[in-house]
Amino acid sequence: MSLKDELTNEVRNIFSTSWDVINGRVVPSPTDVGLGNKAVYLEKAVVLYADLDGSTNMVDSKKWEYSAQVYKSFLHCAAKVIRSEGGDITAYDGDRIMAIFINDGKADRAVRAALKIHWCLIELVNKIKLEKWNASDHVIKNIVGIDVSDLRAVRTGVRGDNDLVWVGRAANYAAKLTSLSGSPTWITKEVHDLLSRSTLYGKNDAAMWQAKTWTSMNNHNIFCSDFWWSVS
After folding, report:
1. What's the pTM value of the predicted model, to 2 decimals?
2. Which of 75, 89, 116, 215 shows the smallest number of beta carbons within 10 Å?
3. InterPro entries, per this entry (predicted)?
4. 94 Cβ neighbours under 8 A, 6+ residues apart
């Protein structure tokens, strides 16, 4: 059978096979989802994407060793913070990390993780880098996007080389929010509506979030924040 015939048969099979969907109580790993048209459903899952802001300019202008250490430091801090807040890391993609939060307090925990990641960049990565590098001219910045929606985990690829794809608005919106500028943390109104007072207001009842209109996404209501949450 030629490659064209094999691909044609497989695509036709994918489109003609009904989906077998099960409800998930935990965030699944790839081996938890079958290779056929099978999916795991997560109700109102919160998705977080954390990304380095301006990394292209960094790799163009700095030594590769410096850029590699920035990547490793950022992703290590982000991963540790996400896990400390009960998030499940689902993917690393270059200089970004994706995580999913489910169950009680999921929006609060995701937002705290975002604000803690921002703190790590300010208080750890940007300061400790100066012990090794004369790079005071380069400020390392992050940007995090968070949304909430129903999700389906689908296993894609070929046998022996596959991974999960997350089908649902939150996975797309959270990723797209990281393309915005001006603030390190962006959330949708749906996430903002789930937050408790502790993640809505800072010291002296200062409002932590500023309402914005996402003009490129049908004027969707979103919020941004320049606040951080210290790590102890």
Report:
1. 0.94
2. 215
3. Nucleotide_cyclase
4. 55
